[in-house]
Automatic annotation (TrEMBL):
Pfam families: Resolvase (PF00239). It comes from Rubrobacter tropicus. InterPro entries: Resolv_N, Resolvase-like_N_sf, SSR_resolvase. SMART domains: Resolvase (SM00857). It comes from the Bacteria. Residues 8-20 have a biased composition (Low complexity). GO terms for molecular function: DNA binding; DNA strand exchange activity. This is Resolvase. Keywords: DNA recombination, DNA-binding, Plasmid. Gene3D superfamilies: Resolvase, N-terminal catalytic domain. Residues 1-26 are annotated as: Disordered. CDD domains: Ser_Recombinase (cd00338).
């Protein structure tokens, strides 16, 4: 789908295109883009239905015009993340090719953890692009009156999540030391421990953890054991 050409509309104070009737300017359609990430576990019918619903929502969205669609389809190859349209979407956002990004749900927008996800949302805001979740009405910055509130709340939760992850990691490492484990050169555990801990809290299966992180199933299993109950190991001397 091509991009609409709607130059000349005066931006709102937040940097976004003025909605019809706003600010005394002549009505110009607000350009909407759709982003949909498709998991290999989704059936094609479910995916098509989601896309059709998003398109239908745009058609009935007064003063808005759908100008672009970005769809990433996961291949299911372990360790490979195909997000070409995600990158293309951000490149187009930086070029001011749309004003609002509509996605199905936050976990369809990104599954990289709350901090990275919120960083992406803040990046959209920095480009002057609002975002709206179709299934989560509270995630909507298209309304200037609540946009800063939504961003403030999401930023707060990102900070709290960072603190929780840091505390969990420190506690896990301290528990490992008390159980006799000597932490020498990083073997990947310290890097992935907070990520896996967060996934475990959200009740991800080990198979899904493997797919999302790119780690092998056995490595995920080994790291989870170290998180839950580190075993005593003989002291070693690092070279």
């Amino acid at each position: 789908m091509g991009y609409g050409q709607h130059g000349g509309a005066r931006p709102t104070p937040g940097g976004r295109r003025a909605a019809p009737g706003e600010g005394g300017v002549s009505p110009k359609p607000v350009r909407v883009a759709i982003y949909l990430r498709v998991s290999k576990d989704d059936g094609s019918q479910e995916t098509d239905n989601q896309l059709l619903q998003l398109r239908g929502f745009c058609e009935g969205w007064e003063g808005r015009e759908l100008v672009a669609e970005y769809v990433d389809r996961e291949s299911g190859t372990r360790g490979r993340r195909e997000r070409k349209d995600f990158d293309r979407m951000f490149a187009d956002a930086a070029r001011n090719r749309f004003d609002v990004l509509l996605f199905w749900a936050l976990d369809r927008f990104s599954r990289e953890g709350i901090r990275k996800t919120i960083a992406y949302l803040e990046r959209l805001d920095a480009c002057g692009v609002a975002f709206k979740s179709y299934t989560e009405p509270f995630l909507d910055t298209d309304n200037e009156l609540i946009a800063h509130i939504v961003l403030g709340v999401t930023s707060y939760y990102a900070q709290q999540e960072a603190i929780r992850i840091s505390d969990r990691t420190k506690a896990g490492l301290e528990r490992a030391r008390k159980n006799g484990k000597v932490l020498g050169r990083p073997d990947g555990f310290e890097r992935w421990a907070p990520v896996l801990a967060g996934m475990k809290e959200r009740e991800f299966s080990q198979g899904r953890m493997s797919r999302e992180t790119g780690l092998s199933y056995n490595t995920v299993k080994k790291y989870l054991r170290r998180l839950e109950a580190p075993e005593r190991t003989p002291h070693r001397v690092d070279c």
